[in-house]
């Protein structure tokens, strides 16, 4: 996955859609969180990670399914 992500054109935004636990693992990797207890995500939600190099990033937004369904 991360080799694929790194090969994408740098100017194109990428939306990652996934499910627990894989999405949380990928977000943790981009945030450089090595401990699986360091960032827990619910089964469903939306995470926005800003990254320049597709290897490291900052969490800019997280919305849970509950907050999305209330909108």
Describe this entry's structure for a reader:
The chain is α+β, with helices and mostly antiparallel strands and 71 residues long. 30% of the residues lie in helices and 21% in strands. The chain contains three helices and two strands. A two-stranded antiparallel sheet has the order 1-2. Strand 1 (45-51) and strand 2 form a beta hairpin. It is globular. The protein starts with a helix and ends with a helix.
Hey, roughly how much beta strand do the residues contain? 15-25%
Which runs of at least 5 residues are low in confidence (pLDDT < 50)?
A: none
What structural class should be given to the helix and strand makeup?
alpha+beta
Helix and strand pattern? HHEEH
Describe the sheet with the most strands.
2 strands, antiparallel
End-to-end distance, in Å? 32 Å
How many beta-strand runs? 2
- Helix content bin: 25-40%
Major sheet strand order: 1-2
The 3D shape can be described as globular
* CA radius of gyration: 12 Å
What does the average pLDDT come to? 83
Number of helices: 3
Write the layout of secondary structure elements.
Elements: H1 2-7, H2 22-30, E1 45-51, E2 57-64, H3 65-70
Features:
71 residues, alpha+beta, two-stranded antiparallel ribbon, 30% helix
Write a short abstract of this structure.
The protein has 71 residues and is α+β, with helices and mostly antiparallel strands. It has helices at residues 2-7, 22-30, 65-70; strands at 45-51, 57-64.
């Amino acid at each position: 996955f991360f080799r694929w992500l790194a090969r994408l054109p740098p100017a194109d935004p990428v939306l990652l859609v996934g499910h627990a636990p894989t999405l949380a693992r990928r977000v943790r990797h981009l945030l450089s969180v090595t401990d699986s207890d360091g960032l827990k995500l619910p089964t469903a939600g939306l995470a926005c990670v800003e990254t320049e190099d597709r290897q490291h990033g900052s969490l800019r937004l997280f919305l849970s399914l509950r907050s999305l369904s209330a909108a």
